[in-house]
Amino acid sequence: MRNGFIITLFLLTLAPLSHAHEKDQYEEIKLSVVDFLKKGAGSPAGCDVFKEFLAKDPTDLQKKRMMTGFCDGDIDFSKPVSFTEMYSHQVDGESYVCGIISGQTKLSRKIGVRFISAEPYHLILNVKFSRRPIAYAIDDGFLTYSYQSQLQSYNELNSKYCNGTIINPPKQ
User: Fold this and answer.
1) 100, 67 contact by CB (below 8 A)
2) Contact indicator for 101, 37 with CB cutoff of 8 Å
């Protein structure tokens, strides 16, 4: 009986330690995700340029679409962000963390980004933005195709590594 009590006490001691390790790992992943998204984001100066153009001629629809494309498709990290979901998955003996970071764009609209990270290296394999208006801001088939290819790639990885549902591209 005493051995059973000691084993139970030992296991109860280990449970919080493993949770603390997972929490530390998630904090490191959060930093990697933010760094990855900052590197891929458009220049803040680009948004300001389009705002200035639009201020001079507010009736120019093409400039308005371009401003929306540049200013409304990335998280503005000067505003608060939150990680609303993070899950660990094991696939073929390898670890992956899947999650969502939420924030606001430069136009103060909500935006979310799903991500897939290969562990223990915090290597961001792919991301999926809740919207990418730049893909539809100008009549450019390449941008639209590129965005749809990115979604297809994310969906394939998501179904394999995150046991997730397929995210279809929005209709524009």
Assistant:
1) no
2) yes
In a domain, 169, yes or no: no
Q: What angle do CA 166, 149, 32 make, to 5 degrees?
A: 75
Which DSSP state fits 81?
-
Domain housing 119: 2-161
Q: Are 99 and 168 in contact (CB under 8 A)?
A: no
Contacts of 136 (CB under 8 A, 6+ apart): 69, 143, 144, 172
- Distance separating alpha carbons of residues 99 and 33, to the nearest angstrom: 10
Distance CA 154, CA 148 (A): 10
What is the total count of domains within the chain? 1
Q: Evaluate whether residue 29 is within a structural domain.
A: yes
Q: What pLDDT shows up at residue 8?
A: 42
Domain assignment present for residue 167? The answer is no
List phi, psi (to 5°) of 169.
-65, 145
In tens, the pLDDT along 108-144 reads 999 999 999 999 999 999 999 998 887 777 777 888 8
Is residue 171 assigned to a domain?
A: no
